[in-house]
Amino acid sequence: MKKRYLSAFIALILSFGGQGGKLWGQVGVTLSEVVEMARNQSISARQAATTKETKYWEYRTFLSNYKPQLTLNGNLPAFSRSFIEVRQPDGTIQFQPVRNNNSSLNLSLSQSIAATGGSIYATSQLQRFDDFDRKNTLYNGTPFAVGYMQPLLRFNSFKWDKKIEPLKFNESQQAYVESLEQISLQASGLFFDLLLAQVNLQIAETNLTNTDAILKVAKEKFELGKTSRNEILQLQLELLKTQKAVGVSKRDLEIASLNMKSFIGLQNEGKLVLNTPRPPIAMVLSTEKAIAEAFANRADAIGFSRRKLEAERAVSKAKGDNGLNATLTATMGFSNRGQTVPELYRKPQDQQTVQLQLDIPILDWGRSKSRTKTAEAQRQLTQYAVEQDQQNFRQEIYTQVSLFEMLRDQLALTVEADSIASEKYKIAQERYVLGNLSITDLSIAFTEKDQAKRDYIYALRDYWGAYYKLRQLTLYDFETNSKLK
């Protein structure tokens, strides 16, 4: 009779082993493939790429401010028909009809000078006046003139923008890399959500098969008087639980699959089968190395310098706007007038203009001083905030490195626990079939085996989550010892 039990038990074990080979050995999608798909085709990746492109064109706009600007403007035509007020010699007023065209064109080339905040320019102007009532046409123009405009004792935005805008551009480039690593982290989480759902379904289906097989063995033993009715009822209850677990696991699997497909932009409607990932190759981690790479690569690290410069710029602007403001403009060239256009270029007359525009605050009731003091206080506050953020920055890296190393050790322990729990369950099955173990002890081994398998997947999830988080915080690949781009 024991041979019959052992035959049933062997069939049960083969069933379990066959399920295990099918569940854990089939070829499917890997974690790295899911991450790569998310980085290349997800909506989040496209949003990050669009943001990067926007920042690029904003930077190109900034660079264009320091290039020569060639512009053409004018009024073509400038026709007017109206009545104007004309004072007569006797002091009376008459309104005379006027019909004229006063068109003009102006071609100018200008270049900003960042060091001084001024600009140098060259211009050529042409004006035509047509008096239709008197049938008269006149031309006025400046064949060529050069000039220079220089603000004096004023805030120089060009100088500060030249310091800050390149930092903002570099910050946006690194922010893009961080966005991709954030996508990798999210994809990793969704991968393990789906993997856990698959594992739960696999466990539920295997448990259903095994429970059904054990119930058959128990019924044979019950017919021979070797087990109690209570054990049969307990196994029947366990069978119902496993059937319910299969239904719940299928629902969770469908939800997890849809969530991951939606995030990574996968249009395939087929079933996804995931491979259980393995830990990366052994990596040598150094907290000092991680902190150094983070300061060298992260957008936040660039932002520390940018925020300080912006605070300095605010102080400079407050001082420049509160004192004596003056603008010096000087122009030298040629001008002429005539009945035709060629006459403008025959013996043009010299033209010179010099203008100094002043704006001097006399009484402002302390407004200028208050603005300057406010900007200085804000600068000090920014320095304190940056110092605190730098400390938090270092602490976050240090904590993540420590967490990663701890999770790596925990993963090794869960692998061993999973192996022990599986072996213990197999032994419990054999002992129960042979009548050396109660149904309660078999249920305990049953539960421990399932929990150990889930704990292993959770440990893998925590490990890989910490791995991708460390990449995001440092923008450095510790496997290949290279910066992320």
From TrEMBL:
At the top level, the lineage of the source is Bacteria
What name goes with this protein?
Outer membrane protein TolC
Q: Which UniProt keywords apply?
A: Cell outer membrane, Membrane, Transmembrane, Transmembrane beta strand, Transport
Q: Which Pfam families match?
A: OEP
| InterPro entries, per database record | OMP_efflux, TolC-like
Localization per record: Cell outer membrane
The answer to whether UniProt assigns keyword Mitochondrion to this entry is no
Instruction: Answer yes or no on keyword Phosphoprotein.
Output: no
Gene Ontology MF annotations: efflux transmembrane transporter activity; porin activity
Q: Where are the transmembrane segments?
A: none
Task: Give the family, as the similarity comment puts it.
Answer: Belongs to the outer membrane factor (OMF) (TC 1.B.17) family.
* Organism, scientific name: Runella defluvii
What's a single GO CC term here?
A: efflux pump complex
